[in-house]
Amino acid sequence: MGENRGVYWYLGNTVARVYFSVLTFTDVSVLFHVGQHFLKSSKTNKNKFEQGQTDEFIIEAVNIGELKKIRIGHDNKGGFAGWMLDKVEIDAPSLGKRWCFPCGRWLDKKEDDGQIERELFPVESRTEEYEKHVPYEITIHTSDVSGAGTDADVFIVLYGREIVTSQKSLCQTKKERKEKFERNMVDKFVLELEDVGDTIEKVRIGHDNSGFGAAWHLNKVEVRKLLEGSKGSRTYVFPCNRWLSRKEDDGEIVRELVPQQVTEEKVRKDGSTKTKEIKQDTLTSRQYKVHVYTGDVFRAGTDANVFVTIFGENGDTGERQLRNSETHTDKFERGHCDKFSIEAVDIGKPFKVKIRHDNSGLNASWFLDRVEVFDDDGEMYPFHCERWIGKSKDDGYGVAILLMLTFYLQGYEGDISSTSTMSTLHRSRSRESLKSGFSDTPSSLTRRKSGLDMPVFDEPSEEIYVLS
């Protein structure tokens, strides 16, 4: 299978056609060349190669292993062909590597040495390594109902038993989005994502509600993954048959789906294939009630958009916007309790809530008292906060409050490094490491309210953890 490489360009402007070639040494005397690629459609900018911007391209090429050199140039056509190239970065997810090729020179007939083609070499100290990605074939079936298609940015997340992939858009450009996800269409994509293992327990699929006619009726999703050793593949079928629309169904634009059917296809020694259905225990969907209590202090309410993620022992709900309060038209006002419903695949016992707002509106800062989560058995899980969330407020202890808080269930002693936290391990800490980061001295800025220890980081961080 060809390998997708993300190519990033940091540059000044040119209107000429830009091309590049990737080269690697197979031994001391042989040079292997993957061919010349013209860089046509930038993922990040409509007008590519403009001054000061970064353009990203997806290129499919054979796997040639470690990169030693690239050749990049342009055809010197157009009124302003001269080009100052800062650097090139190449990301190869299937290899788990990202290379940086500095340039910092003109490709211009009238500048520097007059060359319009340069050979660049990677800087070893700036080469990044990460966990290798694997290819997934994802097939999307849009329903055959009126208005089913969408031009919105559709994304997906895959959940294994222990590993969760990052969120990935299915289309790379706006042009591609306009050609996909039409009524009664079947669209296939190959994405390189983290390896979640041979068992996929659920997928989360949604869109950003952008574009004209964003509402989308999704029939089903199929995910095909190669088995270890490339001896076959396993295909998961995730039925949906629901709207992802702000104006239809329950107003949600994100759905969590569990597999209805799993089939395995293996290649025999004679080249023929054998297909069998795999029995797999599936998770069930549940309704979670989320009660959000705004504090009873001066100007406690917020007009910002609020988002919540609930983490449990079996996974997480993903980030959900709290849009439609069941109790108040004007939500998140002083002293109010706003009630919301979230449908998600069973996450087990909730132990953590992450809540944030986007700091929008005239009165964005918000004093959050607590959040209560109820499962569909009526079990209640309280998460106490009692502090400001916002950039313009201070908690009275000299610490700037950030836009996001993460807090744990009081008295929870279970595992907090389950599947639910795998996708954000780089930002998480264990309970012990969190506790060790604080002291009981006044300088630690620890406060206690209602019998709760509520430490905050001395240094600003992306998340603030409040431990019970």
Automatic annotation (TrEMBL):
**Which InterPro entries does this UniProt record tie to the protein?**
Inner_ear_hair_cell_LOXHD (IPR052970), PLAT/LH2_dom (IPR001024), PLAT/LH2_dom_sf (IPR036392)
Which SUPFAM superfamilies does this entry report, sorted A to Z?
Answer: Lipase/lipooxygenase domain (PLAT/LH2 domain)
Q: Where is this region: Disordered?
A: 420-454
Renumbered to this chain, the Polar residues biased-composition regions fall at: 436-445
Lineage: superkingdom:
Eukaryota
PROSITE patterns given in the database record:
PLAT (PS50095)
Residues in PLAT domain copies? 1-121, 134-258, 286-403
- Cross-referenced SMART domains: LH2
Q: What is the designated name of this protein?
A: Lipoxygenase-likey domain-containing protein 1
